Amino acid sequence: MRSMSETQIWHGGDLDEATRLFPDAPQPWIDLSTGINPIAYPVPPLPPSLFERLPSPAAHNDLERAAAEAYRAAGSEMVVAAPGTQVLISLLPSLWPRARVAILGPTYAEHAQAWRKAGHEVAEIGTPGQAGDADILVVVNPNNPDGRIVGREKLLAIAEHLRQRRGWLIVDEAFADFDADETLVPLLPDNAIVLRSFGKTYGLAGVRLGFSISNQGFAGRLRAMLGPWAVSGPAIEVGRRALLDHDWLASTRQARAADARRLDALLAVFSASPPRGTILYRLAESSQAPVLFSHLGQRGIWARRFAHDPRLLRFGLPGSEAAWLRLEQALTTYAAPQAAG
After folding, report:
1. Cα 152 to Cα 188: distance, rounded to the nearest angstrom
2. In terms of residue numbers, what domain contains 267?
3. SS in 3 state form for 251-309?
4. How far apart are CA 173 and CA 183, in angstroms?
5. What are the pLDDT digits (tens) for 107-129?
6. What does DSSP assign to residue 191?
7. What is the CATH classification number for the domain harbouring 323?
């Protein structure tokens, strides 16, 4: 296992940084640096009372029942709603004494940072078999940024191996809504915890809503840590309605999958290998990635770069035909000199 020291974490969506790096870029920015659905769930009109009163326990329970149905959990008592998955990532390390934590990487860097800050011994591994004697294994599935998927049967075997040593498996399924075949939730072992994100799939990151799914005892401990009114009334109502709207999810999955194929076709001009990732983002790899990053930035298109590997660029999906055309034009003007050379 490779020891992980604290490193710079770059997140998507930072248009202030984009403007600092490219002050003369044309406006508006096309932000392709996140993995958030660019066409959001239509937020219904909300009654003023949701903003004027504390949310009721009954409303909170309704949200968790909707999440249990959407994610196919065995019961709503296993589901804990929180103000965003990031809050759960930050809280989980405090529920264990000092432990050996293996993180299947490279992946979303906040996992390692959270466990390290809480005083745990953290190491990055390249395959699950390298976890060794770790007490806790963290797997992002599908992985961010490359879309790698560890199959459900493999995860169940890993959980059983950990259980024999009183270990735990934590699976971050933030991008699983559109690729749900391998979700661990329906067959969740007692020593496994699954995290699910709401804002990415539904395009409503500002709502700040996420869920933990675990055995009832662990869920109770996490719920107690979050305390009362962890999720706002408006977030509860929007989340409940969206999670129960199965027709919207099905049609959106088809539409975004078509967008992902369209994006792959554009990136093929640049990427040294077929783009990979999830429906909501595509990862391209090339030795020319830093040059392309600057080329796009100068044209008001903000892609996601990675500190751990400068050859990688991740692209979210454009949200309008105008944005698609700007991206296509920018990639074409980049590719033309390369072809001429």
Report:
1. 10
2. 7-39+247-340
3. HHHHHHHHHHHHHHHHHCCCCCCCCEEECCEEEEECCCHHHHHHHHHCCCEECEECCCC
4. 7
5. 999 999 999 999 999 999 999 99
6. T
7. 3.90.1150.10
Q: Which two tokens stand for residue 234?
A: 């408006």
- Regarding whether 208 and 177 lie in a shared domain, the answer is yes
Which residue, 215, 245, 275, sits at the end of a domain?
A: 245
- From the list 21, 228, 313, 37, the residue with the least C-alpha distance to 29 is 21
Give the mean model confidence (pLDDT) for residues 264-283.
Answer: 94
Q: Are residues 91 and 223 in the same domain?
A: yes
132 secondary structure, DSSP code: T
Structure tokens at 325: 């055309």
- The Cα–Cα gap between 32 and 268 comes to 17
Residue at 291 is within a domain: yes
Q: What distances in angstroms separate CA 129 from CA 43, 139, 172, one per listed residue?
A: 44, 12, 18
Q: pTM value?
A: 0.94
Burial 73-83 (b: 16+ CB within 10 A, else e): beebbbbbbbb
Domain CATH for 77: 3.40.640.10
Helix axes 57-71, 233-243, angle to 10 degrees: 30
CB 226 within 8 A of CB 148: no
| β partners of residue 104 | 125
Residue 44 lies inside a defined structural domain of this protein: no
Tokens 């007490």 belong to residue:
135
